[in-house]
Design brief:
about 325 residues, Nucleotidyltransferase, domain 5, 5-stranded mixed sheet, about 35% helix
């Protein structure tokens, strides 16, 4: 039986997420994998993983988001391309219509989105320092000889914590070594790291922002119970975590595509067999003006699939 639905794809520096939703906006399938520095291979792999469901779905529209959203759109044939702020806000609003604050922490960046009356009114993004992102915990877990999942589980069980410097990953490592030499347990250090991440987030990304409930916590780090508890302790309010916390960007992208797609036009979606495409990418500098934009162009055997990077419409593809 063929299901009608929508596809959302979130291509980030650390992870690639994909969802297929039905016309009632229920998630029929979700996939997650590490981008591992090769976004094209990541998109091909995740589309292959989702191929069975996609091929039994009449896809009405496809939306992409994430730092690699333009590349993803060119590969799969997207009908909508939106930034992460818009996509994450839309996903949160679907499950929590009254949400006023969205905390999103991923592997390489973290965000705060302020929503009032269903509209984004302010936001901030941290893409410079790893100390307020999931990679901070990943790195420290590796140094401690465990996976980040093991660190999170240990931190959630620990009845005590030690204070770790959270403003800088280098200082955090110094603190960890000092605490270990003092005899602090691994569990207490793990919990201290989770609390340090929260303090860093609140003092940098969220600095000066009005954090009002309901507060929704999403992104891969939302799986970490110790981080959620630390937010609740610091803020003094309940922090909500949606069931599909790890794919909310992709989910929001699918919803936006569904809402914006012209029902009288067919979808641009190329189907699930993206893995079969033979692709080539080139970059060049446009010297038509003083902006000297670096243009990225991706092609297959049939022609140019997409271009991006320009500040004007000179290199945009025309229908």
């Amino acid at each position: 039986m063929i299901m009608e639905g929508y596809v959302g794809l979130d291509l980030g520096a650390v992870s690639t997420n994909l969802v297929v939703v039905d016309t009632g906006f229920r998630i029929a399938g979700e996939w997650y994998l590490r981008t591992q520095g090769d976004p094209i291979a990541s998109v091909k792999k995740i589309m292959k993983d989702a191929e069975k469901l996609i091929e039994t779905t009449e896809v009405r529209a496809v939306g992409t988001t994430g730092s690699g959203r333009h590349l993803a759109a060119a590969l799969v044939g997207a009908d909508s391309v939106k930034n992460e702020i818009t996509a994450h806000a839309r996903g949160a609003l679907h499950f929590f219509p009254d949400v006023q604050t969205v905390i999103e922490i991923g592997g390489q960046d973290s965000k705060i989105i302020i929503i009032r009356d269903g509209q984004v009114v302010d936001f901030a993004v941290n893409t410079i320092c790893a100390a307020g992102t999931g990679s901070f915990l990943d790195h420290q877990a590796t140094r401690m000889g465990m996976s980040v999942e093991e660190l999170a589980e240990m931190a959630a069980r620990s009845p005590e914590s030690v204070r770790i410097a959270g403003r800088c990953a280098v200082f955090a490592e110094t603190d960890i070594i000092e605490r270990q030499q003092r005899g602090a347990s691994q569990a207490a250090i793990a919990r201290g790291l989770c609390e340090a991440l929260v303090r860093n987030y609140l003092s940098t990304v969220a600095a000066g922002k009005p954090i009002s409930p309901p507060v929704v916590f999403q992104g891969g780090v939302a799986a970490n119970l110790a981080v959620r508890r630390a937010f609740e302790e610091e803020l003094g309010i309940q922090v909500l975590v949606p069931e599909h916390y790890g794919v909310m960007g992709a989910f929001g992208a699918a919803l936006i595509a569904a809402e914006e797609k012209d029902p009288d036009k067919p979808s641009c979606f190329r189907g699930a067999r993206v893995s079969d495409l033979k692709l080539s990418i080139r970059t060049f500098i446009c010297e038509e003006c003083s902006n000297t934009c670096e243009i990225v162009e991706i092609s297959d055997d049939a022609g140019i699939l997409g271009r991006w990077g320009g500040r004007c419409e000179r290199w945009d593809l025309r229908e």
